Amino acid sequence: EAGVVQSPRYKIIEKKQPVAFWCNPISGHNTLYWYRQNLGQGPELLIRYENEEAVDDSQLPKDRFSAERLKGVDSTLKIQPAELGDSAVYLCASSLDQSGTSGTNTQYFGPGTRLTVL
Amino acid sequence: SQQGEEDPQALSIQEGENATMNCSYKTSINNLQWYRQNSGRGLVHLILIRSNEREKHSGRLRVTLDTSKKSSSLLITASRAADTASYFCATDAFVSGTYKYIFGTGTRLKVLA
Prior knowledge:
The complex is a heterodimer. Chain A is about 0% helix and about 45% strand. Chain A is mainly β.
């Protein structure tokens, strides 16, 4: 079974430029997560989707970040314009069930996209 | 702020020794999970323990959960150099009216051959 696929793996951009990350979750997983992980820290949730609905985007900086999950499968996370402080690893994960269920919401992570903003 | 705080932040042991990492959290939880992250890689799920469970085992891993103290521990027995990684706890926690998946700050484990 294929895991969570992310692209690109690495991205270097100048500040104020736009950037987009793509994620393909595990087949059949309805829940999709985007996280940001700064160096030496744990992942911080940016947005969570149940199918195509964004059910938790409270941590997403909406002035510059946007996300979409068309047809409830693949997802794209965009930053426009990027700032120096956006340099981090952006992780995508998927799970079979959503948070708060009986315990089958184990998340499976992709390899991440390492973003460097110069 | 993050839900989970892990202790110690870094741990260095000799191969064959046991490694113990602790995680504390703040609110009620549905379950708690431990993940491993090798340098430059994504996170890999290790083990899940539900809020009504007190201990679980998986191979060389042993996890305990004390909901009265809002804490969990991960024990890796007979460590190997390949266990060198960062370990994170993650809680499925009820925060601000909804369940959220919140990661701790991580413990960086180094196993010396």
